[in-house]
Amino acid sequence: MTILNLIPWERGRPRPAVERKRTGTSALPRVLLLAGVLLAVGSRAADVLPGTAPLTWPEADLSERLMDGAHQFVERKIGEAPARRAAFWARDFSSAEAYARSVAARRERFRTIIGVVDARLAPGLEQYGDTARPALVAETARYRVWQVRWPVLDGVWGAGLWVQPKERPVALVVVVPDAGQSPEQVLGLAAGDGALASGVRQLAESGVELILPVTVSREKLVTEDLALRRSDQTYREWIYRQAFHLGRHVIGYEVQTVLAAVDGFRARHGADLPVGVAGHAEGGLVAFYAAAVDPRIRATLVSGYFDSRQQVWAEPIYRNVWGLLREFGDAEIAGLIGPRELVIEHAPGPSVAGHKGDWNPPEFARVAAEVRRIETGPQGARPLLIHGAEGARVGPFSPAAVGGLARGLGVATLVAAADAPRPSPAASFDPAPRHRRFVRELEGHVQMLIAGADQVREKFFLHAVMPELADNKWSTERRHPLQPAAKFVAGAARYRQLFLEDGLGRFDEPLVPFNARTRQVAETTRWTAYDVVLDVWPEVIAWGVLVVPKDLRPGERRPVVVCQHGRNGVPRDTVDGNKTAYNNFAGVLAERGFVTFAPHNLYRGEDRYRWLSRKANTVQASLFSFILAQHDQILRWLGTQPFVDPARIGFYGLSYGGETAVRVPPILPGYALSICSGDFNQWTRKVAATDQPFSFMRTIEWEMPYWNLGHTFDYAEMAYLMVPRPFMVERGHYDRVGRDAWVAHEYGKVRWLYATLGLAERTAIEYFPGGHSINGEGTFEFLHRHLQWPAPAR
Hints:
Elements: E1 2-6, E2 30-34, E3 37-41, E4 53-54, H1 59-84, H2 96-102, H3 104-113, E5 126-127, E6 136-139, E7 143-153, E8 156-165, E9 171-176, H4 183-187, H5 194-205, E10 208-213, H6 226-231, H7 235-244, H8 250-269, E11 275-280, H9 282-293, E12 297-303, H10 324-327, H11 330-337, E13 341-345, H12 364-372, E14 384-386, H13 399-408, H14 432-460, H15 462-465, H16 467-471, H17 485-504, E15 517-523, E16 527-537, E17 540-549, E18 558-564, H18 585-591, E19 595-599, H19 607-617, H20 623-640, E20 644-654, H21 656-661, E21 673-677, H22 683-688, H23 715-720, E22 727-732, H24 740-756, E23 763-768, H25 778-786
Parallel strand pairs: 4-15, 9-10, 9-11, 11-12, 12-13, 13-14, 18-19, 18-20, 20-21, 21-22, 22-23
Antiparallel strand pairs: 1-3, 2-3, 5-7, 6-7, 7-8, 8-10, 15-16, 16-17, 17-19
Helix pairs in contact: 1-19, 7-14, 8-9, 9-11
């Protein structure tokens, strides 16, 4: 051995890196840290952990292999989804009434996942205007066009144009513009698609009363906020991001706006007149979904949208619907409309690119194939598919499509469309302020939900498990636990399952045998480190670095600390003293006698992991659905190692690893404790609040919203699932992921619960004068105490 350099190490100073053993180049020397001295030594042949096969893949390749396999796996799951949907459906075609009953649960599920869950306000249609913009916008011999608004939800108003026939109307239709089109363009009062406007005016000329609502534009946000500009969001994504985390959706808000207009029609005309909806492109999506959730809608025209949704994950981000493909393709959604009239028009439409997904109008072969998939029963008629010769596009709102809609509404005769009505002399109008107002109202509704989310979560979880809190039947003089911890744990079991199934999502796929492969990658006088690769699913592996102390006695079983890296990290970062955020914590803990294991989590490669989570969302899963399975397999494998005590495996993660600390250990009972570092927060506000400069609403991290977690599980509720196991938070005062006050507020709930259950000694928080990093003082003491391993003498 040759001494290269002598580098004394002191606490607070980065350790020298332990240089990696170069995979596949065994003739080359490796460098190791030996009692504070860097030494070069020759390679050895014995570099495989006993009982495992040699790992031959290059280390630099492992992260990519893991990511590639995960993408292959989820794409297989998406491909399997259509065949697996039958398990959710039990259609009864014996009568229209029986069919409606048989799909009622699926209709309710669909309503929930698109966020149509709030009670709408009392209906009403208001004409409005002022001297600059009078209520009457235009008039013809057959109809008048008014500015109109109508109440939808608390603080949210629909707005647009109201086309009123001068005679009693023959039918009522809500015509939904494409995202970015104004109602004026759809009617021909402003420059737009002439064919579309002609079809709409044909309905108006034929005595159909129309409402044309404002929709949320797909244009980029206009803002002076530099962070928002860098986040590259459209108006639709802006609403989608914040709403998704609260169990709402930009699609759902627009559906609610349409249904509130239907409410207004019914309040004005009663139930005598038939109601229809129609829309093109994004408006076609909204019309389609509105008809699926509301049986009052008798006929529907979907123009330029209907398609196979198997690639919905590649469409713009604001079309992401939690678990959509698990139960629904467009054929199944159409099944919620039948036996009511549905007209599908194969029409041209906009090409959308760069919206965290792209979209082009579908090809005819895919449209026709999806129509053939619609279940109609032995007597049912398929929807009317309108197209040109050899599948050519027509329209939008071609005479055939508009005629099909009219027949579905019982309108026997349509008159030819006249020229566009002439606007009133004072009707010059800029639609931008009206659109901005609608977007602000939707944002206001989501932010109102955030303000009340604490109480919703408390009622959802804590009050359900501890009803004496809701009933206020407990004494403030109490000096003993409010209830036994075992009773709370039993009551919380249901919520652990809800968090897994509905919050994070899981894949229904059995784990495969370990097929463990290892190789030695680093060594000091105190420990030896190995790369470990395990199979998880046919396409998916788990990878991590196992650090084994050298002072193990024969037959001794040690506690393990799973040391989790953060975003864009790799396992070796946790034993690399040059990575100052981690401060070599996996290596230092090994020097203290713990076995450590640093898994590789999938949040590396920026948008590659975001697209992975996006794909998984379509089948009711997420990034953490993969991570959970990988950690489950890691825990199982660790438990088989002769030097590991499987009852004493703790978790300690920083940043995205801290995010893992409140998601994975609460679900996997194999973790005896969990420490969340550099992440604990008021997560709902962190993700969805628009008034905070460090919110994810202003960053590139578009994968952060998880469906309805804001109303079910914030960090306190996630930590409740650790009870009775120990749980700790490590917080640097200068860590910009949050604020001390937010952390203290959320952790206070956790502390209260542990104390109330008589478990106060099993939870702790440590603040330190630092930033986004491992501090390794109070947390190390916590690990020694609760994993029952003696701390070194000071």
